[in-house]
């Protein structure tokens, strides 16, 4: 494609390095320029409207263009645009949001620490878990277990827990302290005749065997998303989390629930931990915490996690950690306002009420002759297509084709392999869910033709 000299598309190619693209190919294709957003819609620079079927990056819960959030940001910027929380300083917005989160947590939590992204938060949880093990006099207890297809970000430790080859290859990841167990993809990997409960038991047995092989005294923590999202939306089968937690408790391994996508209503409860009966030591929150209007993430930790860390800082005289933007006043003020909107408008209830329709429409699309299966819970789901077997077809070709065809029909959704993933803003209505899936149905028909 050629772009006008000095157009935004041409300048983008000239100056910006983009994530998750083939950079050489990007020079030829460029990008779709999104100019503004309103509710569940975004508009490109030619004025075309799209349903944002992934809420940006699984994150814009309250929809685009919410004035209450821009007003909250302006108010805070006018009053105190920036201040830090280092070395005996603090400010109101970070305290207000920390108190709010401790009050909302589904299990007793002791402290909150703010960071700016999901990756940064997960990376820091690893560092704190190592610090904690040293504090407890267990310097060997440092290994971290994640899951294949799990996604926890891309910084060095978080990227190492992520279980996706594309986030490791040529980056020299994962770190050698990281291990991975299987993805709980019941539909895709159950043995013939295996029930969900038996599958979950097998997943837990695999985890237990790994912990025993490594040595329980060397394993610090297990990280898991309540619902695996960025790996392709895998909803845990019956009993999965109960079985996994029993193993972790048996060997004194911390459980870190990565709620970066599930948190704040995505699964039909405020937190994915509530939907699946998870009782974590640490919860990591981001994305819908501020509807991504500001970069913000939070680590919630229980006393079991926090107390040894506090003791160690007393022994050393200081906790030798801190980010310039931790607890940023504008980000935390926007986060608090965003959570108030989620509560006042009962967006968690909206998710719960509309989920049956959302899943029914997804299941309906899975009847299409190009489709293989579907997965989903709350307002997050995936439609998996049959892989293309034509000579020369690359893996993921079916997914790429449906993503492009859906875009043509005015829906932005994310292809992961051959699965097209949906995670619309929580403000979506029944009518809009209908319009979104009608458009995807037309997209499937276009490809089939
Ligand atoms: N954890 C989960 C579950 C995520 O889905 C993501 C991002 O998609 C991250 C962590 C990383 O967050 P960030 O992109 O803000 O670093």
Topology:
Layout: H1 8-15, H2 23-29, E1 34-38, E2 41-44, E3 49-52, H3 55-58, H4 67-80, H5 92-104, E4 111-115, H6 118-135, E5 143-147, H7 156-161, E6 178-181, H8 186-189, H9 196-214, E7 219-224, H10 240-250, E8 254-258, H11 272-276, E9 282-285, E10 297-301, H12 303-316, H13 329-344, H14 347-365, E11 371-377, E12 380-385, H15 397-408, E13 411-412, E14 414-416, E15 419-422, H16 430-448
Parallel strand pairs: 3-13, 5-6, 5-7, 7-8, 8-9
Antiparallel strand pairs: 1-2, 2-3, 4-10, 9-10, 11-12, 12-15, 14-15
Helix pairs in contact: 4-13, 5-13, 6-12, 9-10, 14-16, 15-16
Description:
It contains 16 helices and 15 strands. The protein is of the alpha/beta class. It has two domains: 32-65 and 346-448, Aspartate Aminotransferase, domain 1, CATH 3.90.1150; 69-344, Aspartate Aminotransferase, domain 2 (3-Layer(aba) Sandwich). The strands form three sheets. Strands 4-10-9-8-7-5-6 form a seven-stranded mixed sheet, with helices on both faces. The chain has a four-stranded mixed sheet with strand order 1-2-3-13. A four-stranded antiparallel sheet has the order 11-12-15-14, with helices on one face. Helix 10 links the parallel strand 7 (219-224) and strand 8 (254-258). Helix 4 (67-80) runs antiparallel to helix 13, helix 5 (92-104) runs parallel beside helix 13 and helix 15 crosses helix 16. The chain is globular, with a radius of gyration of 22 Å. The relative contact order is 0.14. Bound molecules: pyridoxal-5'-phosphate. The site of pyridoxal-5'-phosphate (PLP) has 15 residues, from helix 6. It holds the Pfam family Aminotran_3. One of its GO terms (molecular function) is pyridoxal phosphate binding. Its cofactor is pyridoxal 5'-phosphate. Belongs to the class-III pyridoxal-phosphate-dependent aminotransferase family.
């Amino acid at each position: 494609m050629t772009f006008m000299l000095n157009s935004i598309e041409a300048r983008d190619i000239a100056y910006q390095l983009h994530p998750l693209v083939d950079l050489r190919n990007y020079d030829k294709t460029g990008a779709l320029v999104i100019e503004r957003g309103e509710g569940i819609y975004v508009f490109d620079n030619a004025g075309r409207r799209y349903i944002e079927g992934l809420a940006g990056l699984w994150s814009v819960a309250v929809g685009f263009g919410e004035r209450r959030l821009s007003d909250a940001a302006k108010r805070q910027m006018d009053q105190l645009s920036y201040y830090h929380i280092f070395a005996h300083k603090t400010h109101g917005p970070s305290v207000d949001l920390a108190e709010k989160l401790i009050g909302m947590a589904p299990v007793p939590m002791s402290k909150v620490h703010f960071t700016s992204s999901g990756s940064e938060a997960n990376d820091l949880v690893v560092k704190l878990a190592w610090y904690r093990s040293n504090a407890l006099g267990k310097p060997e207890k440092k290994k971290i277990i994640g899951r294949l297809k799990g996604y926890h970000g891309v910084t060095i430790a978080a990227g190492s827990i992520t279980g996706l080859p594309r986030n490791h290859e040529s980056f020299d990841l994962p770190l050698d302290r990281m291990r991975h167990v299987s993805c709980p993809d019941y539909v895709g990997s159950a043995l013939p005749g295996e029930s969900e409960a038996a599958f979950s038991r097998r997943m837990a047995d695999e985890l237990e065997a790994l912990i025993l092989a490594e040595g329980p005294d060397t394993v610090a923590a297990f990280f898991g998303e309540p619902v695996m999202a960025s790996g392709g939306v895998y909803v845990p089968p019956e009993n999965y989390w109960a079985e996994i937690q029993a193993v972790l408790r048996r060997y004194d391994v911390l459980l870190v629930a990565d709620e970066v996508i599930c948190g704040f209503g995505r699964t039909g409860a405020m937190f994915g931990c509530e939907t699946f009966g998870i009782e974590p030591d640490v919860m990591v929150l981001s994305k819908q915490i501020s509807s991504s209007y500001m970069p913000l993430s939070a680590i919630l930790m229980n006393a079991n996690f926090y107390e040894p860390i506090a003791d160690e800082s007393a022994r050393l005289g200081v906790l030798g950690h801190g980010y310039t933007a931790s607890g940023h006043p504008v980000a935390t003020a926007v986060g608090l306002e965003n959570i108030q909107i989620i509560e006042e408008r009962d967006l968690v209830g909206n998710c719960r009420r509309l989920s049956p329709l959302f899943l029914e429409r997804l299941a309906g699309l899975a009847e299409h002759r190009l489709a293989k299966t579907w997965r989903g819970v709350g307002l997050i789901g995936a439609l998996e297509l049959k892989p293309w077997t034509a000579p020369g077809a690359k893996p993921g070709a079916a997914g790429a084709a449906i993503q492009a065809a859906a875009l043509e029909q005015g829906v932005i959704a994310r292809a992961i392999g051959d699965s097209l993933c949906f995670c619309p803003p929580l403000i979506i209505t029944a009518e809009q869910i209908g319009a979104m899936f009608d458009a995807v149905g037309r997209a499937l028909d276009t490809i089939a033709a």
